[in-house]
Write a sequence for this structure.
């Protein structure tokens, strides 16, 4: 992956492609990413430099990322454009095998003087950064400012001198002969105990080696010369030469959630792989596969934070309404106090006392003590209690209404948070549009310039799976989609399922449902609910015709009758085979609820 030697190889390839090219345009698709459009005699390239913590990267993009909504350039982008736009790339280098690439740019300032800048791309994992410095090493701009509160060792702020990451006490392997490595390995024989020990020694002692390259080198040593000082030294020197000089085709192992790549063949790993002519081709394919998913996860994470913050405020509001209702329980007591004061005015002193004792009409042997305002007459105290009664009565009515509304919103937000766990790009866009329409999040900023063709007018479709008996199982991915599934797509006699008393998806079985289909649909309903990680989740099922939506209810909220309940445990080993069965036929046509 991105270790020091890989970055050195990447910088060399970028240097060959971009040196002499002119930076014609600079864009900032998000806060962490810059795109430089570089025109060379042979082609125009899109150089992407990003510090996104989940995927810091520097590569040439075939489809460069774009802003989701147009707007004025940020002050940061304006400053970077001021220094680099129309400049020429003089060189691309790597700094000390330290996962830092430097793009050297020569540009002309407002006075016509030639100036030199360095764009430093620190590909250092979660601490990655993109930093622009001048010829004197002074920081001009950065995508991620670092203050003294964040790091005592190095601050990254405009105006400060650039300080590289802490130096590593490791050996630069470039140019070191085999004999020197043999001597070092003989002095540390524990490094040759096995492949794992040699890989750990390489990452600890040799600059530019990350864990992946170290394991590959140790594997090559064991496979060829054996785990001897001479064999390990030969593999080390050979690996460095291959990576830097391009002695082998770079390989990418897609590997699902844990892809791996490097500038040579990864012989120590099994599984499918792809070979490329150079690392630039590899990175282009790799990132254009994973960036859409990363973007969705990033947007989903931001939406989750916004919804959780709103949910936290809503919980406080619900607590206030419940406190009001608890206080309003005393309303009848105040009405009764007022009536008793009027009934027993003769026994209540005119003024000067804070309490009156009167007989309890319901229990003559009991005395009631009524609080009074000493400054008021009996009639005025009675009126005071009547006013308190009316106020609490009105407060109760308002609190009950607001509490009902707040609890409905809470259910809706909890369900929206649930859908974020499985949202793809289409489902996320659908959910954001639904939340914006409900006034729960801000609507997206309107695009600048002429309207572009989008899928905004097309409603997303429910997920579709097949039961082991061949029945079609449909699953909603948002509140609005649940409504469309239940009241537009489903037929009256289709079977409808939902996790009982839990936020979750609407599930519909199209047509007759056998015993196996019913259980599998219940597993799906439990899996796509808040009970995903629970055992014995109750799932209600009933014909669609028994489901109705109350007037004014939020998306996805329904009431139903005539239900039966099935208990299932949505373990992955039971659910995954169902999720893997996808129908090949076209999506079902939408029908009116009373159509078959």
């Amino acid at each position: 992956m991105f270790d020091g030697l890989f970055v050195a190889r990447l910088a060399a390839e970028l240097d060959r492609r971009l040196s002499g090219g002119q930076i014609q345009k600079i864009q900032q698709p998000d806060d962490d990413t810059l795109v430089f459009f570089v025109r060379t005699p042979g082609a125009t390239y899109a150089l992407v430099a990003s510090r996104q913590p989940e995927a810091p990267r520097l590569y040439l993009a075939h489809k460069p990322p774009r802003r989701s909504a147009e707007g004025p350039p940020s002050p940061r982008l304006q400053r970077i454009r001021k220094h680099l736009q129309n400049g020429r790339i003089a060189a691309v280098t790597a700094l000390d095998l330290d996962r830092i690439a430097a793009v050297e740019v020569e540009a002309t300032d407002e006075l016509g003087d030639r100036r030199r800048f360095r764009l430093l791309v620190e590909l250092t994992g979660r601490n990655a950064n993109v930093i622009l410095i001048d010829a004197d090493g002074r920081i001009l701009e950065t995508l991620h400012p670092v203050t003294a509160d964040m790091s005592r060792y190095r601050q990254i702020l405009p105006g400060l001198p650039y300080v590289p990451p802490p130096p590593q006490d490791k050996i630069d392997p470039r140019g070191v002969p085999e004999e020197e490595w043999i001597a070092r390995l003989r002095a540390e024989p524990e490094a040759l105990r096995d492949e794992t020990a040699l890989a750990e020694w390489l990452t600890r002692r040799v600059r530019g080696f990350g864990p992946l390259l170290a394991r590959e080198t140790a594997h090559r040593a064991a496979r060829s010369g054996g785990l001897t000082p001479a064999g390990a030294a030969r593999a080390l020197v050979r690996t460095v030469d291959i990576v830097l000089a391009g002695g082998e085709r770079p390989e990418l192992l897609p590997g699902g959630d844990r892809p791996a790549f490097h500038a040579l063949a990864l012989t120590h790993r099994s599984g499918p792989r792809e070979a490329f002519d150079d690392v630039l081709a590899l990175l282009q394919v790799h990132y254009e596969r994973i960036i859409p998913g990363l973007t969705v996860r990033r947007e989903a994470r931001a939406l989750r934070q916004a919804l959780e913050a709103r949910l936290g405020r809503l919980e406080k509001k619900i607590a206030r309404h419940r406190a009001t209702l608890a206080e309003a329980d005393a309303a009848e007591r105040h009405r009764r106090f007022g009536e008793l004061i009027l009934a027993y005015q003769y026994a209540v002193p005119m003024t000067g006392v804070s309490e009156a004792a009167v007989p309890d009409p319901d229990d003559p042997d009991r005395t009631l003590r009524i609080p009074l305002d000493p400054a008021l007459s009996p009639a005025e105290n009675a009126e005071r209690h009547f006013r308190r009664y009316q106020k609490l009565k009105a407060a109760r009515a308002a609190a009950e209404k607001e509490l009902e509304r707040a609890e409905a919103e809470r259910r809706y937000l909890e369900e929206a948070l649930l859908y974020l766990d499985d949202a793809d790009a289409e489902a996320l866009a659908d959910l954001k549009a639904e939340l914006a329409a409900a006034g729960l999040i801000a609507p997206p900023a309107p695009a600048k310039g002429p309207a572009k063709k989008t899928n905004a007018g097309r409603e997303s479709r429910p997920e579709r799976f097949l039961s082991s008996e061949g029945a079609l199982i449909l699953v909603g991915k948002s509140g609005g989609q649940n409504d469309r599934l239940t009241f537009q797509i489903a037929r009256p006699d289709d079977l409808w399922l939902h996790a009982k008393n839990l936020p979750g998806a609407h599930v519909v079985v199209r047509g007759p449902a056998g015993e196996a289909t019913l259980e599998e649909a219940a597993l799906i309903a439990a899996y796509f609910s808040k009970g995903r990680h629970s055992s014995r989740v109750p799932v209600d099922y009933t014909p669609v015709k028994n489901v109705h939506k109350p007037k004014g209810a939020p998306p996805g909220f329904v009431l139903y009758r005539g239900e039966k309940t099935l208990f299932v445990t949505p373990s992955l080993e039971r659910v995954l085979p169902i999720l893997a069965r996808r129908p090949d036929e076209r999506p079902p046509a939408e029908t009116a609820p009373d159509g078959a």
Remarks:
- Residues 447-457, 589-596 have pLDDT under 50 and may be disordered.
